[in-house]
Known about the structure:
Layout: E1 3-14, E2 19-21, H1 22-26, H2 33-40, E3 44-46, H3 54-69, E4 78-82, H4 93-101, E5 108-112, H5 118-131, E6 137-145, H6 155-158, E7 163-175, E8 183-191, E9 199-201, E10 214-216, H7 218-239, E11 249-252, H8 257-267, H9 278-281, H10 288-298, E12 307-314, E13 318-325
Parallel strand pairs: 4-5, 4-6, 11-12
Antiparallel strand pairs: 1-7, 2-3, 6-7, 8-13, 9-10, 12-13
Helix pairs in contact: 3-4, 7-8
Amino acid sequence: MTCIRSEIIGHGHYLPAKELTNDDLAKIVDTNDEWISTRTGIKSRHVAEKDEYTSDLALKAAEMAIKTAGIKAEEIDAIVLATVTPDNTTPATSAKIAGKLGMRVGAAAMDISAACSGFVYALTMADNMIRLGQMKTVLVVSAETLSKITDWTDRNTCVLFGDGAGAVVLRAKEGNGTSEDTGILATKIYADGTQYENLLCNGGVSTTQTSGYIWMNGKEVFKYAINSLSEAAEEVMKMGQVEAKDIDWLVPHQANVRIISGVGQKLGLPEEKVIVTIDHQANTSAATIPLALSEKMTDGTIKKGDLVVLNAMGAGFTWGGALVRI
Ligand code: UT7
């Protein structure tokens, strides 16, 4: 039966120029390359300058996505930005990006706050708007300057995060309703508010009138992550009526290489089908998935027609997955 699918017609990514290696960090806090590499898989991360904002990173990724899509910004009906590090408390940073991109006046702009699951949440919202027929072309962007909410004196957290942005352009296309269609085949998003305190920024507009710094109960997050990420991936594969053997690539949220391999193993996916970019990007929250996706589409690793599972988990706790044929 024919149906509307949201097809990824463009992709983009951007990392700020400044790079901080593990050795650089060892000069700031009591840590070392060996600990960070073996415990997390991270070797280096990119960090924005003081006057380089989330919108600047987002704009670069969005411009690349629009260019690879071969469309004009005026054709975009809505922008959905996933971020926990907006330029201003209000308005939405997506509105600023829409203005800078030259999107037409009247096109919708919204920010989504779902931490590391932000891209999967944003993709789900965009896909639903497209499948309902409300929008034809939607720009989905994830961008973070986590360096600005990182406590650079806390070795438990400062070694884990980085800054960056990724984007995709989605466009409505008629499909046959089968797993052979290109585009988003299934999405599923979840939350468990009882875990609110286990991963958070310890400030906020309504509480402290400061943005605060990232704090987490690393062990609890780690345990929850493997199960929730596997659950999300399994659910979208079931919804899309495909099996693990059909999957070409898993593009997981990049928080810890040990979590990524644990999930890959649980799903029965061979290691070479699991995309890992954490070594040079660290955890950029909502941006890890579109950054990895765009980087691997650009270098030709992920190709047209490939079947891809995306999955993410983060503060809230929130988690989710998407099944996409490129
Ligand atoms: O994006 C979604 C949210 N985030 C995550 O998914 C992250 C989930 N959690 C993790 O990835 C891991 O729990 C961490 C990487 C954060 C920590 O790894 P761990 O194996 O759970 O280490 P730990 O917290 O148990 O710390 C082990 C030891 C401690 O020393 P003692 O108490 O055993 O003497 C820490 O003080 O390592 C010490 N440590 C460090 N040592 C050197 C903690 N951070 C560092 C550091 N360098 N940066």
